[in-house]
Inverse folding.
């Protein structure tokens, strides 16, 4: 999905990777993936131009209080998150879902080709950009190949493969637990009010993680039509080889590699990699090879655009989708209390097909 115009670059909303950098070295591979615990970050000069975009307002490490000045050794994390929330609230280009001042009546739906509708601010025709501070649940499918397999009947076409983000409450931060509850309830009200008449079922976005834990689901499409590259936009290949068909990492996934070669041989509607606009806690661009180590269990500021499609199949339903516009890591995984996914019985066939949490009942033969 094309990033809307109102998703402008600010300190809380980094410019998309399609924004023209100052030179070819401004967006490079981050080598800041660290192991072990770190000390509270102190205010520091902006990183060098080799590892940060030209506009370093979003790329410099987010300032926080000195750990030595605080009684609680983890208080700097709270202060850091508070600073990020303050910045997002001051941003006129996105809406912080955790704010109690936001109401479903502030938005309306507009047609956007076919059966798709985008949620917009009242009085505007541009899609509303929502922001949330959350944790990326470890059950998310954020590997570059999206765990795609040719035998998976739920996602048979590789060109439609997508990263799937399960968003949950940041563990250990009560203020942001409340913000997440507020965000979930707001989206639930928006979705309930937008249902198609005579349709009682809807899918997407609202994604309970367990019987007692709420969650949200967002996505990022791996591919986009080559023709979507707007005039004056930086070609993904200028950012890194990993944003090209030839250089995209597939983690030895033979099925995905074969499908990628087939895509590259296309002569009609050629596709290209759709770069995920994502930054680590120091403002370095995340490459696809970084996703698996950097995103699960991280606390992030994430923005997305909400859309709705009516699916007129045998079982008519509304499908709501949250397309990620950008991600900024606030607390890396090693600074966050790890989330342990609940153990579930998943049949071997489901594991082989990467179906994930879907549980198929096991039929037992009668012995009588």
């Amino acid at each position: 999905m094309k990033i809307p115009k109102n998703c402008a670059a600010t300190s809380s909303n980094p410019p998309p990777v399609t924004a023209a950098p100052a030179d070819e070295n401004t967006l490079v591979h981050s080598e800041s993936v660290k192991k072990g615990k770190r000390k509270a970050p102190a205010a520091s000069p902006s990183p060098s131009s080799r590892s940060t975009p030209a506009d370093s307002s979003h790329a410099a490490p987010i300032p926080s209080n000195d750990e030595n000045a605080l009684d609680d050794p983890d208080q700097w994390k709270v202060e850091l998150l508070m600073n990020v929330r303050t910045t997002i609230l001051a941003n006129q280009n996105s809406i912080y879902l955790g704010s109690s001042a936001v109401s479903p009546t502030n938005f309306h739906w507009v047609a956007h080709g076919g059966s798709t509708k985008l949620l917009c601010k009242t009085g505007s025709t541009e899609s509303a950009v929502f922001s949330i501070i959350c944790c990326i649940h470890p059950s998310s499918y954020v590997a570059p190949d999206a765990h795609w397999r040719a035998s998976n009947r739920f996602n048979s076409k590789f060109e439609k493969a997508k990263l799937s983000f399960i968003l949950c409450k940041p563990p250990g931060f009560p203020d942001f637990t409340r913000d997440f509850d507020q965000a979930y309830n707001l989206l639930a009200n928006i979705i309930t009010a937008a249902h198609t008449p005579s349709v009682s079922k809807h899918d997407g976005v609202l994604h309970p993680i367990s019987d007692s834990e709420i969650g949200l689901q967002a996505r990022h499409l791996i591919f986009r039509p080559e023709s979507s590259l707007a005039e004056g936009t930086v070609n993904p290949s200028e950012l890194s080889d990993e944003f090209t068909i030839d250089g995209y990492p597939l983690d030895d996934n033979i099925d995905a590699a074969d499908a990628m070669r087939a895509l590259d041989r296309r002569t009609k509607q050629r596709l290209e990699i759709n770069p995920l606009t994502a930054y680590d806690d120091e403002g370095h661009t995340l490459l696809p090879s970084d996703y698996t180590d950097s995103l699960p269990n991280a606390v992030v500021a994430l923005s997305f655009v909400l859309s709705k499609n009516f699916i007129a199949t045998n079982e008519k339903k509304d499908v709501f989708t949250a397309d990620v516009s950008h991600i900024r890591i606030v607390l890396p995984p090693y600074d966050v209390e790890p989330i342990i996914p609940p153990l579930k019985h998943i049949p071997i066939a489901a594991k082989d097909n990467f179906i994930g949490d879907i549980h198929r009942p096991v039929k037992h033969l009668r012995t009588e």
In short: Residues 77-223+275-352 form a domain with the OB fold (Dihydrolipoamide Acetyltransferase, E2P) fold (CATH 2.40.50). Confidence is low (pLDDT under 50) at residues 1-37, 41-60, 63-70, 345-368.
